[in-house]
Amino acid sequence: MEGDDAVYNIPSTPGAFRLLWDVFLSFRGEDTRHTFTSNLYTSLHNHGVRVFRNDDGLRRGDEIASSLLEAIEDSAASIVIISPNYASSKWCLEELSKICDCRRLILPVFYRVDPSDVRRQKGPFEEHFRKHEERFGEDKVLEWRKAMETVGGRAGWVFTNR
């Protein structure tokens, strides 16, 4: 029927439903912001990839910004840079949980950490999760643990050079 596109408001151009961002970068700022993450962002950006990177930083005690959650939802994929202090940040764990909930492509980078430690929350992550349980309770931390286990179980890139 002629005019059906207008009735259903269906865009006629390919890519009309394209997400705002190609990639959402999740990282622990103090570990990688000015080194690995900065270089990765620049390289992706220079190759035409639309990358969301939170440069504002988040202060202790702040609630995760709705704009940050929206950026995760509006990204086709996420690159999660898991570094030794990643799990010390409530913000990083909230991002990770949201990333897993969106069920899109997740590309993990294991930066100076063993993927099996990420998967099992051992090594540098063990103490971080213990402290989070004391502060936020077992239910919330279980959500974060499941997200870490999911990402730790994915094939990714391991960078161990010091």
TrEMBL record:
Residues annotated as domain TIR: 19-162
Keyword NAD: yes
One protein family per Pfam: TIR
Keyword NAD assigned: yes
Highest taxon, organism lineage: Eukaryota
Entries under SUPFAM superfamilies matching the protein: Toll/Interleukin receptor TIR domain (SSF52200)
Keywords: NAD
InterPro entries in the record: TIR_dom, Toll_tir_struct_dom_sf
Name of the molecule in the record: TIR domain-containing protein
GO biological process: signal transduction
Native source organism of the sequence: Lithocarpus litseifolius
